[in-house]
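Good morning C.,

I know you're traveling, so I'll keep this short. The sequence:
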Amino acid sequence: MGASPSVPEKSIHEFTVKDARGQDVDLSIYKGKVLLVVNVASKCGFTDTNYTQLTDLYNKYKDQGFEVLAFPCNQFLKQEPGSSEEAQEFACTRYKAEYPIFQKVRVNGANTAPVYKFLKASKFGFMGSGIKWNFTKFLVSKDGQVINRYGPTTSPLSIEDEIKKALEK
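The tokens, ready to paste straight into the viewer:
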């Protein structure tokens, strides 16, 4: 299923997002890389497992062209209450995350971040296009297309084989 008419972009590489300090990041810098895009939260029951496994996957495959793009989100029971910089510090200090932690975003509703509008239009989940909870994951191909979407209860390590296949293409 392609992007809906309300989302004119055809690739994740067409978006510019903000890093944790508010600086623009052109996602075209990730052309040719396999991406795992995740809405993260520091105070969620899924936090420890997801951050630990995201760091493990990143460290294992970063030299093969794999990137994790983490977007803090406070929409689910306010489980990411601090600033974007605090979310980045938490991930980098506690979980040794070396992948980018971007500015906090909204993943549902009227103020959904454009990159999340694209992701959700590309692959529907259990609740249609809406994001169900923290740690929903989108696997994105080297050419910027969404390969698959995974719910919050899907652990990052359980999709390792799909990441390897995408890296081989």
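Safe travels,
E.
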